[in-house]
Amino acid sequence: MLRFVYSVTFRLILPFVLIRLWWFGRRSPDALKHWQDRIGLIPSVEGPVIWVHAVSVGETIAAAPLIKTLLARRPDVTVLMSAMTATGRARAQALFGDKVRYAYSPYDTPGSVRRFLRRARPEALVIMETELWPNMIYETAAAQTPIFLVNARMSERSARGYKRFGHASRRLLQQINWIAAQASSDARRFVDIGAEEDGVSVTGSIKFDVRVTEALREQAAALREALGRERPVWIAASTHDGEDRQILEAHARLRERMDDALLILVPRHPERFDDVADLVGQQGFNLLRRSSGTVNHDCQVYLGDSMGELMLLYGVADVAFVGGSLIERGGHNPLEPAAWGMPVMTGPHVFNFDDIYDRLERGEALVRVGDSGELATAVADCLQNEARREALGRHALAVVDANRGALEKVVNGILAKLD
Fold it and tell me: H or E segment at 190?
């Protein structure tokens, strides 16, 4: 009954959702161009297909090594990637080019999902992290297509929400063939809200399998040289509205102590690039945008307003602050800077990645700050104290190295269940 009410409600609001898509499509032409994907009218896909659903940028990045490994192990397969957002789709295209097919996820009505399935005919659906859309799951299960929830996480906050709908949550989770949880705490929460215990495994996070290639090191070294090899550089990445001003305040304080310090500022969402650029100007900083294609030693803030280059930009810096954490957003993945072997800093709100941040903290690789003042002090301390900076970076890389291996477990688990 609850699913029926949910589906009817979604159908009723669908015209307004499409109007909203048209309205915001003025700022995201790609989303408007492919609007038919949203009602399941994607181009047909030939041959064996594995459908990988990654809601947005973070999940798309996490899915990258999984998809590369699946394609290497099953070269006969077409991977169809779906995303809810234009940024997620753009990130996927930047990562894979024409090696992967792309589509926007169908809106979660039974008809839209059925149309999508008829055209894709996947032999499996792989859902990244915790993107549990009821009709997507029920209709895929009804088509006798195995469903895998991988790199799965479940925060206490989310678990409490699912428990309010105990019977519905239990039935939904029991449609999923295998849940590959990031940590034992995630696995326990999935079981607590209704997943079958023998259908849940702890594989670890595939995000630990991130690697820095030699080509990426060379690109980062060249950009650092152009920006100024000797000057201190820090990066604030994946920032949200409400954080950028605090970060710029921290940078102003830092420059009182180190007047040649450079901030690389990378907003999470591309639609905010221009607004953040305006804010940087309002704060009186000399701004250089990555998209300008020019580089010089004079800029005080380097705005990362390009897609698919965050890993590169981390490699240019000496210290990394990971955003979404000075506000109650829940934080973002800190393992990319950790893989570079650099100090990782965060605000207090990291409930989306609590296990990963706890591991970094236990490994003496994390600095937590509460506000812009603490952030400025912590960055200055790391930039001015080479021994501390190197120790934090060494510990961060050690945490990443110690937790690798989830990728192989997940891929083996998926392919074994498909044989």
Answer: helix 184-192
